[in-house]
Amino acid sequence: MSKRDYYEVLGVPRDASEADLKKAYRRVAMKHHPDRNPDNKESEDKFKEANEAFEVLSDAQKRARYDQYGHAGVNQQGGGGAGAGDFGDIFGDIFGDIFGGQRGGGGRSNVRKGADLRYTLELDLEEAVRGTTSKIRIPTAVTCKTCEGSGAKKGSSPVDCGTCNGVGQVRMQQGFFSVQQTCPRCQGSGKQIKDPCGTCHGRGAVEEQKTLSVKVPPGVDNGDRIRLSGEGQAGSHGGPAGDLYVQVSVREHKLFERDGIDLHCEIPISFVDAAIGGELEVPTLDGRVKLKIPPETQTGKLFRLRNKGVVPVRGGVTGDLLCRVVVETPVNLTKRQKEILAEFHDIAESEGKQSPKKSSWFDGVKKFVDELRA
Question: What ranges do the domains of the chain cover?
Fold first, then answer.
């Protein structure tokens, strides 16, 4: 679903002043705050939407990029907006210490844990069953070497924020109460970058590709997740990095289908082997094994090969391999073969006891028809 225009979210015109933005943001945030609207998903979404809009429009550089390029110009890494776990902190940002209480340290740190990331890892069935170690490459934010993470152009430094005078918070009067909130311009850091670094454009970080080694345990299946702690999106203002969740996707196999800890496969056999019995070599994930086919085997019969399935990822009894035989009708018969089969058919019909299912089926049909006529 496409995002709404940020000015529309806050209900202000595109030429709104900084004061108008602050006023509109406070109004929307206070109206839809989760503490005032418990269990209201619509208000929760609007609250997140307002935070995201204000974060962009209150920053002169971000606002300029948004005005020129729209949402694409300010696309945020790691899924923007405040998560449900951030509501307590955001509540403090909006309403502050109600009776004018001052936070320790002269200002509020805007430390945030980085977002969790997800990576889909495709595996062959053999790799999923046996386990493997895979190398993956993911994008990640690293400290900009040009500005050493400051975000400011080399030779310059961030300056105290002109709105909060470096404190990181501003005090607003709400009726009888003095309300303290995070500075909307510097987002609580107390600093502003007047001359941004040309490499990272003021972010203090640049995106790079990094290679990670993922150890996949034996027995994983579709949808299983492997957590790599601290390998997610970088935190803000010194906050810890998020986690990376590697989700397993197992490719379709040309011979086997998996059902939990068991494997299934179909084994085609000739009608001669089915009739008089024989011995076949069948595949398993550990190599070929011999399977004895008893005489008079019918199509669809299942043969169970013990412990030739999957070892459960959390331990336990190894699964089995279930082989379903399918009796194959011969094709491209020669004239002599047809003659032999016709002779066999005549002998089988005269005996009348060599196709028990066929005989019982026709007996059932005859009984059914007779009952309809009665």
Answer: 1-95, 257-373
